[in-house]
Amino acid sequence: MQPMADMTRRAALRLGVGAAGAAGLFGAGAAWRPAPSRATGNFYPTLETGSFVSAARGGVETNWIIARPPGQTAALRPVIALHCKDGDAAWVMDLGVEEELAKLTAAGRPPFAVVAVDGGNTYWRRHSSGEDSGAMVLNELIPMLPEKGIDITRVGFMGWSMGGYGALQLGTRLGPSRTAGICAVSPAIYMTYFGAPAGAFDSVDDWRTNSVFNLAPRLAPFPLRVDCGTADSFAYATKSFIGQLNPPPAGGFSPGGHDVSYWQAQLPAQLAWLDS
């Protein structure tokens, strides 16, 4: 385990340290402190955490994290960031979201918040088990955000791998009047049911119904960006999907694989695009 002096606040989140435990780890003189649920003084905390029991996920305690640029006093518009398979809300923040938001605001770009939430491995949609992490986002997480100082009039979506698939699905479900933009990064797109991992789809019919290829005609009104590494195992399927989109999306293919190194390298341009 890394020394306590070297532990970052996101490392504490990764280890599941609660507010009191994190305060003990960082000490009285540390720069980080547990984030309150509302604005403190004249600003909102740059990192705010909490949880709720999700009925849509079958009563699962579901963690959320809100990242804001520093020094914000007003309600910000959100980008809902969906993690990859086996990820969680803390995984999203590990990519460097806070730092990139601060850089954008320092460069004079309009500030916005990034909201991450635990979604399990159900591909951000309903399954035959009844668990529906997509409904959790649309019907539980987003309606909660105004009390956290977030303006949900229009909402952006981004996601990585399984989350990229989810961003396409949820942005389409929310509709073009409410969805400010969709950024799908290395989206987990399966050309066949049998090529998908166990648990991704309940059956062949489920795959047919929930394939992102079905979304292609409906995505035309949405600001859309799709990025994928040229060495990514999903590159072929992503090219096939992009080929069906009219107009073509922003983003594209660049050297890289299906990994954190590629995702971190692309994050600044993607957040800047979502801020446009």
UniProtKB/TrEMBL annotation:
Gene3D superfamilies from the UniProt entry: alpha/beta hydrolase
Naturally occurring in which organism (per UniProt): Mycolicibacter minnesotensis
PANTHER family per record: DIACYLGLYCEROL ACYLTRANSFERASE_MYCOLYLTRANSFERASE AG85A, ENTEROCHELIN ESTERASE-RELATED
UniProt-recorded name of the protein: Acyl-CoA:diacylglycerol acyltransferase
Single annotated GO MF: acyltransferase activity, transferring groups other than amino-acyl groups
